[in-house]
Amino acid sequence: MNAAAAGYALIFFDGLNLLIDQHAIVSLENMSILRGGDAEVKASEVIERDTCEVHSLTAHLVVANEIDTRCHYIVVLQTNEHRFGITVDSVQSLPIQDSKLNSLPTCMSVSKSPIQAYIQIEERIAFCCDVSALWCHIKSSESMHEHKR
Q1: Which helix or strand (DSSP H or E) is residue 144 part of?
Q2: Over the chain (149 residues), what is each successive 10-residue block's mean pLDDT?
Q3: Which of 2, 32, 95, 135 is packed most tightly, with the most Cβ within 10 A?
Q4: Residue 70: strand, helix, or coil
């Protein structure tokens, strides 16, 4: 984890609260502003200026051609080499220092997992997520999903 991190964004998707280093966030798109009525919005139109793929985290981590109308936000993230978007239900800024994060118990540690630590926020548990590892997880899940077709 980055010891110089000034804060995190708490994002909620697919039943998980994840902490993402705010420095990894390129942009945040509010879907309620972008769509008219109940019509679905094309993912490519939403993030045209960021020129990246949007992955729907509630649909087997696949590239989203149409954004589900229940999606509230698209967060565009940047790793050292890749830029990608994810659909999320909510986003909140949190000024948490790395020293307050708890290490995962050994039984919960999985190699190549994007989840590295956790913290209790009010009555919820949030998991600190490494964006580069999240990208690798999305790509590996995507290829596994393609093989099952």
Answers
A1: helix 131-148
A2: 63 84 88 58 61 72 65 87 87 79 81 84 88 86 57
A3: 135
A4: coil
